[in-house]
Design the sequence.
């Protein structure tokens, strides 16, 4: 089966610019997550969707980050404007409704200069 | 909020030596999961433990869940160079969202 697809793989921007990441989960997976992984740390949850509804966005910096999953399938995460501390790998993960295991995509490595 | 702590942060072993990483939660967990992330890669699911005191084995890897469901360990017997990577535990109280630890980076010298 196809895995979780993410694009782009790498992105370099200057601070105060905007950036968007895209994720297509495994077909049929109702739950989708966006994680931020700073170098040397574990993944930190930004937002969790169940179909197209938000389950948990308590750690999403809503003044600059936004995410949507309009049709309950693919999702985009946007940062506007970016700060230096946003440099990280942004991982998308999905899970079937009756499973516990997370399937991660390859991530987008963001460098903010 | 819930915290999941892992120790050690880093371990360097000679091939053939054993390795153990420990995970501790500030709250009782409904389950704990372990993931492995190779250098430059993404986390890959290894196992889930659900029951108090549970022990599961995958070849040279042994996973334990504490009796109080607040701690867990991963033990690798006779490490190989293919075991290199960062091992993360992730847990959740009840049905809330998984919280990942900071991970233990394992280096194995041939």
Sequence:
């Amino acid at each position: 089966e196809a895995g979780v697809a993410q694009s782009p793989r790498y992105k370099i921007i200057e601070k105060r610019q905007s950036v968007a990441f895209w994720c297509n989960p495994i077909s049929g997976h109702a739950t989708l997550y966006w994680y931020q992984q700073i170098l040397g740390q574990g993944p930190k949850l930004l937002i969790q969707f169940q179909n197209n509804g938000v389950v948990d966005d308590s750690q999403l910096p809503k003044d600059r980050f936004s995410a949507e999953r309009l049709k309950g399938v693919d999702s985009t995460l946007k940062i506007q404007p970016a700060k230096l501390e946003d440099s990280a790998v942004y991982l998308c993960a999905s899970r079937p409704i009756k499973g516990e295991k997370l399937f991660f995509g390859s991530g987008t490595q963001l460098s903010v200069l | 909020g819930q915290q999941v702590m892992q120790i050690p942060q880093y371990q360097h072993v000679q091939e053939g030596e054993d390795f153990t990483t420990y995970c501790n939660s500030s709250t009782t967990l409904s389950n704990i999961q372990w993931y492995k992330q190779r250098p430059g890669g993404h986390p890959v699911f290894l196992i889930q433990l659900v029951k108090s005191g549970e022990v599961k084995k995958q070849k040279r890897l042994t996973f334990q869940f504490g009796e109080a469901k607040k701690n867990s360990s991963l033990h690798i017997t006779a490490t190989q160079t293919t075991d290199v990577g960062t091992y993360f535990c992730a847990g959740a109280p009840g049905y809330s969202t998984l919280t990942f630890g900071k991970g233990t980076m394992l280096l194995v010298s041939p």
